[in-house]
């Protein structure tokens, strides 16, 4: 069975298409290729190999294959800022930093010299300029750390090529093996490395392809294609919440206080839910329709594997009748608190109930 044009519709659900920015984008050429759904190699040309089969991606989604994580963790300005970051990811030279050429940096002086070299071309600019962009690539617990590092290096070679220098640091001190990659912002040809949303998604795809080529089952799809709402949590906020959970800090974050106030206003009828919550629900409804249509077409196939995938897809949709966002969860808690508060207030207004008198026992 072949989906034909309908497979392209399903692909649009699984892999989004990004619109390129047209003003002030140093990655304009790259973004134009994204619009045409072409993968870019280090020489600026398309990568070898056809676009992934939508059916294979769908199978990994419904079977809950691990999702790769790629995010920008910061932009370092100046040699001092960059040097402090490199000291952090290198655990003060306890972890070797690998260069693009495979050289290992284990000496504090060498690391600081590299930070100054990356920042030197920018000293003449009137304002502080980004010297490097820090990124992190992560996989769930149980993934071989060396495989993760090799896949990150392959991703860097494919996406950056020889134009930008970079450093890699593998961390295994947490259950999730992850690699910190720091990229020199100023390229050899003068272009700036300034990854945006579309670029990060392509980094995820390249990272996932590198892992799958090494036998690690994984995928890189948007959260909404898996029936999950937006994460909406920055690394700084996640770290502050972790301090609260560990008891290091007792001060709630401003973001959590704001969410609680907004949810309480909605629960008491003084405000309405944010527009993006309703938009996410409408998007999931549209995606469900696409998935249901794909399941029907897979059922018409004579291939037993397609029929099995259709059954798994329907089970996947059954477990996700709706999409729950962070505001939804906060609102649910707020509604429960308002209900309990009103019940307690109602009991106080009624006052304590007088105990019932028992009739006296009859004398025999």
Automatic annotation (TrEMBL):
Q: Which intervals hold domain MobA/VirD2-like nuclease?
A: 107-211
Please give the InterPro entries that the UniProt record associates with this protein. Endonuclease_MobA/VirD2 (IPR005094)
Protein species of origin: Sphingobium herbicidovorans (strain ATCC 700291 / DSM 11019 / CCUG 56400 / KCTC 2939 / LMG 18315 / NBRC 16415 / MH) (Sphingomonas herbicidovorans)
Pfam families membership: Relaxase
Annotated region (Disordered), positions in chain: 339-364
Q: What is this protein called?
A: Relaxase
């Amino acid at each position: 069975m072949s989906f034909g044009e309908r497979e392209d519709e399903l692909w649009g659900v699984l892999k989004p298409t990004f619109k390129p920015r047209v003003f002030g984008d140093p990655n304009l050429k790259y973004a134009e290729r994204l619009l045409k759904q072409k993968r870019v190699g280090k020489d600026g040309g398309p990568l070898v190999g056809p676009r992934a089969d939508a059916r294979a991606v769908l199978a990994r989604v419904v079977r809950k294959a691990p999702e790769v994580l790629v995010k920008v963790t910061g932009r370092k300005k100046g040699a001092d800022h960059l040097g402090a970051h490199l000291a952090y990811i290198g655990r003060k030279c306890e972890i070797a930093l690998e260069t693009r050429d495979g050289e290992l940096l284990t000496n504090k002086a060498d690391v600081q010299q590299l930070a100054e070299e990356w920042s030197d071309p920018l000293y003449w600019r009137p304002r502080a300029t980004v010297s490097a962009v820090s990124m992190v690539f992560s996989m769930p617990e149980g993934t071989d750390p060396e495989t993760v590092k090799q896949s990150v290096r392959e991703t860097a070679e494919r996406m950056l090529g020889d134009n930008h220098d970079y450093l890699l640091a593998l961390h295994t001190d947490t259950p999730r093996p992850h690699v910190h990659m720091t990229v020199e912002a100023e390229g050899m040809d003068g272009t700036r490395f300034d990854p945006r949303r579309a670029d990060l998604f392509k980094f995820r795809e390249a990272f996932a392809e590198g892992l799958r080529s090494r036998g690690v089952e994984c995928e890189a799809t948007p959260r909404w294609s898996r029936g999950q709402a937006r994460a909406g949590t920055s690394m700084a906020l996640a770290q502050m919440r972790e301090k609260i959970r560990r008891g290091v800090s007792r001060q709630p974050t401003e973001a959590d206080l704001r969410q609680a106030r907004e949810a309480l206003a909605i629960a008491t009828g003084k405000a309405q839910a944010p527009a993006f919550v309703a938009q996410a629900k409408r998007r999931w409804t549209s995606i469900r329709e696409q998935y249901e249509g794909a399941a029907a077409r897979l059922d018409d196939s004579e291939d037993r594997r397609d029929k099995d995938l259709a059954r798994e897809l329907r089970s996947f949709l059954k477990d996700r009748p709706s999409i729950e966002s962070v505001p939804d969860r906060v609102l649910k808690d707020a509604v429960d608190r308002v209900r309990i508060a009103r019940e307690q207030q109602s009991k106080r207004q009624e006052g304590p109930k007088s105990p019932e008198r028992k009739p006296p026992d009859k004398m025999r």
